[in-house]
Amino acid sequence: MPGGLERLADDVTACESCARLRAWCREVARIRKREFRDHEYWGRPVPSFGDPAARLLIVGLAPAAHGANRTGRMFTGDSSGAWLWDALHRYGFADRPVSLHRDDGLQLRDCWITAAAHCAPPGNKPGPAELDRCRSFLVRELGLLQNLSVIVTLGRIAHESWLRAAGWWSQLPAVKRPAFGHGAETLLPDRRRLIASFHPSRQNTNTRRLTREMWYGIFERAQNLLAGASAVGGEQ
Q1: 171 CA to centre of own chain
Q2: Where are the domains of the chain?
Q3: pTM score above 0.70
Q4: CATH architecture of the domain with range 3-235
Q5: Which residues touch 180 (CB under 8 Å, ≥6 apart)?
Q6: For each successive 10 residues of the chain (236 residues), what is the average pLDDT?
């Protein structure tokens, strides 16, 4: 991993800025879930993960208490992650359909995964001030990832956090800001594409607010956009 991204990962992991979140992560790691009693929990802020040369960026909400807060890798160890890795593998962005833990050797291709918050929050709800503090990491990340052309935001909070970190929240008048809605796609002034999606949480998947067909459609669209960009680039 390039030095800038490696330093960013170290800074994320060492962050103690949000006392409420840090206390919660440690408490979850101490008590543990019954089915994971023999697991050693990560219990710290979870760094981003992926291909530093990625053109696709996926922005989630935050680590799950017994998912990434346990395994130490974004979207690893919970049902949301199972949906994500299945789709990423299906559309060529991951070398396998299952992510087990941070040292399992899984590789992402042309894809980088981050989140609006890097600590697991109580009730899966980081507070506004906590999101504001964590956003500095996303701002730095966007400056280091030079090849991004398609951004997929998972849920309204991730969508708005990315817009703020990328500068569009302040640069665009409210009426022209990309609205959140599943499948909503926006061509931004810098020619990047923003695609919004419902988050693959149990609340959405169990109620079929988000179906597999809807979910796959997001990544098929991202794949097609990137393939089109490659074709155009090859003709120049």
Answers
A1: 23
A2: 3-235
A3: yes
A4: 3-Layer(aba) Sandwich (3.40)
A5: 153, 156, 159, 160, 196
A6: 92 98 97 92 97 98 97 96 98 96 95 98 96 98 97 98 98 95 97 98 97 98 92 55
